[in-house]
Amino acid sequence: MVLTISGVPLGDGVKLLRQNAPELTWHDRSPFLGAVAAAVIPWLRIAHRDHRRETDLELPEEPVAPQGFAVSFAPEDGNGAHAWAAAEGLRLLAADPAAVARAADKITSLALFAQAGARTPRTWVVDGELPAAATVPLVVQRRANNLTGKGTRLVTTPRQLDDVLCEWSGETLRVSAHVDGIAVTVSGCVTRSGTVVSALSHQLVGIPALTPYWGAHCGNQLIADDVLPPGAAHRCREVCARVGDRLNELGFLGAFGLDLLVTPEAEVLAIEINPRFQTVVSLVQAQERAAGLLPTLGTHALATLVPSLPVEAVRTPHLELSQLVVTADRTGVLGRGVETGVHRLEAGRLRHTGQGDLVALRPGEALLWAHARPGDAVRPGEELALLQLPAPAASVAPAPELTAEAREWVRAVRRAVVVGDV
């Protein structure tokens, strides 16, 4: 099974990074995404800090003169990443805030899709009364729904529709006809010389075993071209390239993800733009390394720093990698979490075997990243850990179901976590 991806050849990319970003830091609450890139960018420094919790930080009045560069997961989510970089004497390589805001907005992004010639489900922008043509089943979205997916609801009855319109009254909403299809994420990067279109993944959303929220992100698995209906993978890449070009016109540079829906008839419908790194980029970078391409983190940095990049398209063997966001299934305070690293299952329980590289995982192993810390208050649907597997985690279908192996791993992670009463 193969797929086609584009990117910067690894040797050329590492050389350009050495020349233009000899001091480069990945900064986030977890090193999981940076760790995959660091295997081929050995001078990449990992700064483990959860700036998304630091919502009250202010930019220093006299920032340290930049001596290096930093890249962060979602720098638009508050001031944390910007304040940290300024205090550390690092220039944060982040996309233009105005372009990010326009692309991330569930309503203004509709114009970008239209300009790119990307089809969407039938959609209404609702500010008050719902048009008569908008009948259930419908998907209702708040315009600002970054990172969590909790601002997206499926409504299948008039009563549910009334309830959600009442709950979100006073807001301008995006309401779309519900379409059955396979949720696909295309990972891309906008550069000054064009849009790099990388790996395709099956987006796992709203899986009941992992979340109580219909629209919540539950994980991803890399997919080969021939898993989708004939011609669909090629059309997904075309749409990603055209949307990336429109983002470029707005002044956007860097990594982004495009969420699409592939119908059984191979129609490709655009759903939303995530103008930032996504969790799936960890898997994508493993695929890029296997294809001899620079990981997305490096391409993102170069997109800002150099006027043009050598980009090539390659056909490469598909890596069977997946990841699941393991969430709490009860309300409480975390007393004990899981240990980051490679684990094996023994009698349904985790056995930590050390640290490891995602691309080196063997059958029966998993790489765990602890994302909740002892003392954290958690509720059902809130993230405990990221679980990465060297195998598919779910069926590739409009309503995916976890594999037996994936269910066993999820149970073991939850069993290893102690959640006490509040």
UniProtKB/TrEMBL annotation:
InterPro entries given in the database record: ATP-grasp, ATP-grasp_PylC-type
The scientific name of the source species is Lentzea pudingi
Domain ATP-grasp, which positions? 110-310
Keywords linked to the UniProt accession: ATP-binding, Nucleotide-binding
TM stretches of this protein = none
The protein depicted here goes by the name ATP-grasp domain-containing protein
